[in-house]
Design a protein that fits this description.
Length: 373
């Protein structure tokens, strides 16, 4: 019985000694981090580069308390966007041909939990029920380090190496995937240390500009303009054929264009309309007098940012808008077969090409004129 008591006392002493050692290490780590000041930071913006296979892609990371995180990696307007907002999250990966938001399940959300917080990893773990254990001291990346084991509330195991001299993170490892991240060249931003680079083996993150407490619009952490291309096309085309110019203006940029090459059949002078203001002005001029416009959708095709729609455009227009019919009270009716091609990116319509059967239109115009006589 006495031996059992001695063994229990030894185990209890060892556990207390382990806890004391870990607490001492964490205290030095949080002091080095200036965690007290970091606790006052409500939002964070990081600009830099995601470097892989020698190619540098633009990187932007936005964080806001509580648990809001947005990471965008972009090259030549093609992007991968990841957004975490509390208990929900989603991504758009245009590099993989996925232009519509894909929602995250619980497992994916948990995988990004430490990324979504402004706080340091160990502070996050300590305050979210993780068990932290001292393992050993060893040389890692040519630095003397302290190796810790972290078991989070879900049982996931991670290893974290702290620089023995600076007490900042030198390296981390996911015990299951064996993914190692190496933290390099710490820089002070208003007294708070941040790494300049994080190396993941096949890629490297470079943080060139870090801003504390920037102001963000709430919408950047929601799907907002990131509706599916299909939904955007439907809303846009309805506004287009309803001649709702106020709504249409929301879909154009200065680079957007609208053009109907097939109009050369009846009007060779028609040119491409480029830019929001020019497009709206040309639409108002070109659709002047149009009444009861509608578009009957017959078939649609969606592939990434590309949309093709087949259908029939129907509308009415007073005969007085036609040469030689100024004094007529007749109203002409048209039903024109039409193909509409769109390019939709980031919620905007960058290209709108139409191909209409204007030969058929000319025949209908002649038939309407004969009826009006």
């Amino acid at each position: 019985m006495k031996k059992i008591l001695i063994a229990l006392l030894f185990v209890n002493f060892s556990m207390n000694a382990q806890d004391a050692k870990v607490n001492s290490i964490l205290k030095k780590h949080f002091k080095a981090l200036n965690q007290t000041k970091l606790n006052t930071v409500k939002s964070l913006k990081i600009e830099g580069a995601f470097i892989q296979n020698g190619t540098a892609l633009n990187l932007e990371i936005l964080k806001q308390r509580p648990d809001k995180w947005r990471r965008k990696i972009e090259l030549n307007k093609t992007k991968m966007l990841v957004v975490i907002n509390g208990n929900s999250g989603w991504e758009i990966n245009e590099f993989a041909g996925a232009n519509d938001p894909v929602d995250y399940d619980e497992a994916k959300l948990n995988a990004y939990s430490t990324s979504a917080t402004i706080d340091n990893q160990l502070w996050y773990y300590k305050n979210n029920g993780a068990k932290i254990k001292y393992l050993t001291e060893e040389v890692v990346n040519e630095k003397k380090t302290i190796k810790l084991e972290v078991i989070d509330a879900l049982g996931k195991i991670s290893h974290i190496w702290l620089d023995s001299k600076t007490h900042l993170i030198n390296q981390t490892e996911d015990a299951e995937s064996k993914q190692i991240l190496v933290y390099k060249e710490y820089q002070l931003i208003d007294g708070i240390p941040f790494p300049k680079k994080v190396n993941g083996g096949v890629y490297e993150l470079e943080f060139k500009k870090i801003e504390l407490n920037p102001k963000f619009e709430a919408s950047i952490f929601t799907k907002g303009d990131h509706m599916s291309v299909k939904d955007i096309a439907k809303i846009y085309l309805k506004a287009f054929y309803d001649l709702n110019y106020e709504v249409l203006g929301n879909f154009y940029t200065d680079e957007s264009f609208w053009y109907d090459p097939s109009t050369a059949v009846i009007n060779p002078a028609v040119q491409k309309s480029i830019g929001k203001d020019k497009i709206i002005a040309d639409l108002k001029s070109g659709f002047n007098g149009v009444q009861d416009a509608s578009y009957t959708f017959e078939k649609a095709f969606y592939s990434g940012p590309y949309v093709s729609v087949w259908g029939t455009y129907s509308y009415k227009i007073p005969a007085k808008f036609f040469q030689g019919m100024m004094h007529s009270d007749a109203v002409f009716e048209f039903n024109i077969p039409m193909v509409t091609n769109l390019v939709v990116r980031n919620g905007k319509v960058l290209e709108h090409l139409e191909y209409a059967d204007w030969t058929d239109w000319a025949k209908q115009a002649q038939a309407n004129a004969q009826k009006a006589k």
